[in-house]
Amino acid sequence: MEFLFPFLNATTAWLIALLFFAFYFQKRKTTVSDKPEPPKAAGALPLVGHLPLLSGDEPAYITLGRLADKYGPIYSVQLGRQKAVAVSSKDLLKELFTVNDLAVSDRPESTAIKHLGYNGVMFAIGRYGEYWRELRKMVMVELLSNRHVELLKPVRASESETFVKELYKHWEENKNGSGHLLVEMDSWLGDMTLNMLVRVVVGKRYFGKNAEGDRKIANRCKEGLREFFYYLGLFVLEDAIPFLGFLDVGGHVKGMKRTAKELDDIASEWLAEHRRKQASGEKMDEKDVPDLMGLMIKALEGVNYSGHNPDMINKSTCVNLIAGGADTSSIILTWILSLLLNHKEVLRKAYEELDRVVGKERLVQESDLQNLPYILGILKETLRLYPPAPLLGPREMREDCMLGGYFIKKGTRILPNVGKMQIDPNVWPEPLEFKPERFLDPKYKHIDVKGSHYELLPFGSGRRVCPGSSLGMPMLQLSLAMFLQCFDISNPSDKPIDLTGCVGLNFAKRDPLKLLAKPRLSPEIYSM
Fold it and tell me: Cystine design at 71: which of 75, 101, 272, 453 (Cβ 3.0–4.6 Å)?
């Protein structure tokens, strides 16, 4: 989560003065607990607290990580009127997501969640309660069960194959004299992952061969999802000082509303199309896997989920799944390829494993992945160094609790800094080095990313663990393995790839990734 500190103009000075005195007297009235509380970081300003510290171009998890070096793995900061506690050690995160998991399972209210999350209907960012529990159960049983994830295997294979074959065709038409093609991977990976997720969720594909629908809608969707994560990562003036929210400094609230409407309009078109097909009695081919929106239409019939409108539940859940999967997956793949280009020895070992296990006479299949431990190690090591959401999603304490011997009051926000924890030298030897072979070591080989090994939590843990990781991991493994099997890649520049990240809820690379690609397999393989 990143934070925006808007500067205020002189016309609001009287409001600030009133708020300052209200804040001052409220603080005087507050009863101090006799239980020890986490140390508080110095430098908080009246009203805004530590927001200026977290408002720059540096990702917030890095700033908070430096504070952890000074104050320890648990400490508090002030975010406007809201107190927050940052946690960044394996043992504390384990305690948080086991002993205190129920207490820390709520989401805070925020301007972004209100506008982008269908005012709490979107389950991934909604408040904890009966509705959340009912919908989460339905999603896990009806949509993301192991059985249904297995049924989606042909979709993952089809989209991965289409991706490499279309890239090969692009190479044939645009290669240079040395037989290389300069590719901007962000666009290609974004199209592939969006195709895969939209096909899984609503049964369509927008890019490349056999694309359906209007390309303009697809581009609207891509832009909307990008803005979704940008705005979801902002802590705006209304969150810090509610009385001044009407100012909307920077126009971010207006942007949130525009993005929310754009994504809802697209989801409404998808839902209307499903309804039309349903009304016409159109039957899908027996070979086709039912998409998640169609499954939800049936699952929501006659069920009262805390009085929420079924269509709104369906649309919000589908937007949630596509947003959480497509953007995150393309970002992870971009980080992986960037790291491989900077570590040629790791790239060489990946090629050797693929050639030894799969060969060059056929394309890699999902059944091969269990025999490609080094490819899996590359994925895990990337998720360790560059987790897609280094602060996970914001949490809020539902009740008072003790954490690491400190008293945490109900309503306190919790910032689980897994980005800091996953480079802890007490847990990981040479923590800043990219060493996928560490996951071949018996000491680390068993560690997975499902939320039960607290030294590696890229998708969170406990009740709020990312439900889509079971769908995303095989998708990432297969698409990575197939791309590396099909193309030799190299850095077009003598300089290392810049690994600077940018602000936002999803931790993306700041600069687009460009690489040189050349086919590794015979032409016949790409046309099969």
Answer: 75
